[in-house]
User: What shape does this take?
Amino acid sequence: MAAQLETGTDDLLGRIEDRVAVLTFNRPDRRNALSQEMYGGFATALASIEANDDVRVVMVTGAGGAFCAGGDVKAMNQSHVEGTGHRATMSSDERLDDLRLRQREVSLALHNFPKPVVAALPGAAAGAGLSIALSADLRVAAPNALLVTAFATVGASGDFGGSWFMNRLVGEAKAKELYFRSPRLTAAEAQDLGLVNAVLDDDDFEAAAIHWCADIANQAPLAITRMKENLNRASNVDLATALDAEAANMILTMATADHREAAAAFVEKRTPIFKGE
Assistant: This one.
């Protein structure tokens, strides 16, 4: 039985199932284009998830067959024509501060979150929606999912960290191609590039994605958190610093009850039961 998870908005739904917190973009009539309410929803939900020891993985997905179309281009056009909307009356400095805050509430928060984050793509992930998917630790996709940077087609340079994540996942030259030419990648093509970890060929994609996440949730949560720390750090420090940090985390995790349980289970030829202790 899934438990509801409060987000403070209907634009982002939340529930907990099999130790996986599922956050769902919920504007299917706009292909889950981002809204102001979603950003606060992430802040509310992630604070609750971090404090809940029963939740070990976060899965971000979308309702109605899409992941997230990124910025709401229809709303942008209406704002340009009518001078209305959230940002219409803001100065350039105010718009900059607003975007910086929104990026930190979502992409930075997901990247730095102490628990693993998986983006589950049932369909299109475009523009900032793709950037947010890339900010997750891992990505799974339905066979009919499409990934596209899209910014070049709307005359914008990109946001929500897509350029930072893309460079690290596919290399600078390929990242530039994907941004400049904006090709529509199938799930299989994205997997070949390393943008998608698995294509889940299943009639019920969301259930398959939760099952995939639950495999991670069954691992030792304290060790997984320290692994994420190590891997996030590795791209930005020299080897000596990485080794010192790995050593500290290794000593810490090997002093846990979960490590003792794993060692005993190995000897006894059984599956370990991890409690996060």
Remarks:
- The beta strands are 3-4, 12-17, 20-25, 57-62, 117-121, 125-126, 138-141, 146-148, 185-186, 198-199.
- The CA atoms of residues 167 and 175 lie 5 Å apart.
- The chain has two domains: 3-217, 221-268.
- The longest helix spans residues 92-112.
